[in-house]
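anyone seen this seq b4? input:
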Amino acid sequence: MRQRHWSVDRILKSVMLIAGVVLSGALVEKNISVWSPGHETEERLARGLAFWVRHSYPLGDETVCKELTGDKETGKSSSESWQEHLGKELAAWLGKQSPFVCFFQMQGQETVQEMDQDPAYLDYLEGQRVMKESAYLLLFGDENTQMEPEEVAEVEKSEEIWEAEAGNMTVTDMAKLTPAYHVREQPLIGTQYVMEQLMDYDFLMQHFYNVHSSTTASREEMNAKSMLEMDFSLDKNQKGPQILIYHTHSQETYADYGPDKTEATVVGVGNYLTQLLEQKGYSVIHDTGQYDIMNGELDRNHAYNYALESITAILQNNPSIQVVLDVHRDGVKESLHMVSQVNNKATAPIMFFNGMSQTPEGPIEYLSNPYKKENLAFSLQMQLDAAAYFPGLTRKIYLKGLRYNLHLRPRSALIEVGAQTNTYEEARNAMEPLAEILDMVLSGQ
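predicted toks r here
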């Protein structure tokens, strides 16, 4: 009786020891996530178990060994072959019992398994993926910044002209030093940056961008040299319209909007911008469709979807359009009134807005934008021209996670003109320098 008790106890201890070895190996091994038959991790475990079997249960019956292993010519003794075989079998069996190993095996087989799953379940998984990707965007999907006064003060802080080695160089001399852009005929009264500055990622992001927590911008994406080398010039004499202006949020108004001033909206601002660009020789379509009104009530939840359908139709009917501008008005704290003197006029600031189609977790596949690099370059070139020729006109370029229909053309831009605390005149005044900046970039000056 005592001998039987000892044997059971020994068996239990052996099983526990084996289980402990397996679990420890599963936790410690760095490459356990790619567990597969024949993998190095499993081989090491098999060798360890074979060693344990060889020393605990030595066998010498070669006939039995050959029958068990099927190994006639291995160069090893049959006992060793059988022990190695038993070790591998134990490793495979124990691996299947381990919840850790099973979990990682399921990860590796996920793609294969999905092929055999119920389509309804796959739809559920896709919905879960979308929710995970959109976690950063649920509360921050619109383009309003809701910036605090101190943030705007930092955005609008004027910059000093670069003096590292420039000394008393003229504007033309500075332009020859790896210029960021061409010297324009417009008087240079602001800050001109050179390529050495702009190729410094930290300098570029600090001076030109506000990055919302819903997205990220990598060093590879924000390569100033490649962005400034892109040519956005177009032929004004081409047949058909070249520019489309529209308003995803057509109901955005300014501080003095009312029954006696119904033009104090972003649509009114778009009318004036259309007029200015046509005076410069461009053919412009101004779409005044209302995409944020549903059944007579304000509804901005699906405005970008409604706008996309209509704007896509306009582009299909007018393939000559190369520039797409979505003109908005920002929403800020009611205590904040942003205004500066541009061309000796009280002017609301404009802000170029880029949708990155990605969260900090990675790209949003269902909101891909094949023109994201061009969009970023287009806004940066206009931002630099504004800094050089119309200081005080622009706020930092704002980067957010969604796409905002900027995937329609390489020369696509979302432009915030002032905020709800600006007057219509202040917003309208901003269209004059904006038209000049657009003409600079589109004429390739």
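The first strand starts at residue 209 and ends at 211. The longest helix spans residues 2-28. kinda curious what u guys think
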